[in-house]
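Q: Is it fine to ask for two folds in a single conversation?
A: Yes, each is treated on its own. Send the first.
Q: Here.
A: Result:
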Amino acid sequence: MTTTADADVLPALRAKVRGTAHPGGAPCSHPDSVLAERADGVVVRHGDTVAKAHAPGTDPAHLTLRLTVAASHPDTLLAPLTPTPAALHERLVTFWPYGTPVDPDAPEAAPWEAAATLLARLHRQPPPVGLPPMRGPVKAARAVARLEAAAPHHPATPSVLRAWHSLPAWARDEAPMPGTTTVCHGDLHLGQLVRHPAGTGAWRLIDVDDLGVGVPGWDLARPAAWYACGLLRPEEWTRFLTAYQRADGPAVPAHGDPWAALDVPARALTVQTAALAIAKCTAAGRPLDDAQQSVVDACDRMSGIPPELDGPFPK
């Protein structure tokens, strides 16, 4: 269940995106479309223009640096329409061109190779001075905190928490990450890719909210976790991993077993996914579905196994 954003933000954002799309004030009868409406982000589209109101408390200097990275690497990241955020009802707003997202109803056409190649390209870029840490571990820690608050008595919660506490401190956002020189996306999944120009253009990464310096293996961790949990077919995982290696991505060795670099991030993303699934299902009063249960089961298996294994955590 999503949380409705501040009631004042959405209508103001609609006006803002229309003004940006039509700077001369020309009348337009085309409707707006709300692409996302959550407490941590409201996104509205008007024509080919998209406006995003970022989470309350977003650091303007950090967001500006993240926009700078996107603008500096338009072959990798979707470039913003403006270089700095605007202010709107105590929220920061950024403006973007519209791109066509991945079709969720056509999993056979998922752009795994493109995602991997874009990540490798991003990971090879020098970070600008002052770019903050990528926020992957922060989001994982918030998911676990949400689990503890929403579902402390759920029967699966203890095993998820045991799996969480088996991770090193940096993966739990309790210590600095060991890598501080690699630019990372921070929240890679297929929803973070669009074609630009819409429909016909090349794939680009979107959403810079979590972008920063850190451990590049985190960006490969969600597909790695899906593979280890049996949710991603081996051939799709191989396509993704091979494309990343061929593009000289630094997160894993060019040849040989990648799991020494991926095991901890993949475990962390598994815990994050399980924690959110339990919290959301508890709030909605419904049971876990099969995919969610498989991630929870993986946490149960992980909870008694040290994170320094050479291969994917046991299935």
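Q: Second one now.
A: Result:
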Amino acid sequence: MNSEIYLLTPPEVLSGELSTDQFVPSLLQALDSGGISCVLLCGTARSESTLQEVVAVLRPLVQDRDIAFLIEDDFKSAASLNCDGVHLTSAETFKEAREFLGSDNIVGVDCGISRHDAILVGEAGADYVAFNNRKPLPEIDDPDVRAFEENGPRGPELLTWWQTMMTPPCVSMDDVSIDDASLHAEAGADFIAVQSAIWKHPTDPAKAIAEINEAIA
């Protein structure tokens, strides 16, 4: 299967409901369990200063372990705060983000279940395409594109379709459970995005990461 873990932080870290002092011990447990290729700081910060403060604490912990550290959408802050790149939650800003960050930084795109968007950004040079079955299709005016999208595969089948058609890596962005991790890996996900399965595990994040790694080995 050869999938790797793409770790999503709890949105409460940026919202301020969970302080970095509270979160860091759990994060370190997860990071030191191995198999994580990328950490995405998820959610919306209360302010620019909050984003700066959180990144200043978490980014070195991640990067010192040779793991990529990304933030959502704000590609200008990704550059100024020395992140490894940006995860775009919409394909609309890909061109601007790529031009701003250049080729040395990661620009990944969450395309929801849109194969059309995925093909466009994949061919335009996205470092990865993420498929997220929790997002609906965007409004589509072109009837041919609409038919293509509405008749497309969903769930793990979408990952398999991508692997048979395109070369950029794909991320299963469905907040995959431990029980479903092997299914998404077998379907062709290069990276498995996990969030609640890690931070809400009944034992601890280290145990959760170990179980994910075992499932996708």
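Q: Anything structural to flag on that second result?
A: Two points. The first strand starts at residue 4 and ends at 8. The radius of gyration is 17 Å.
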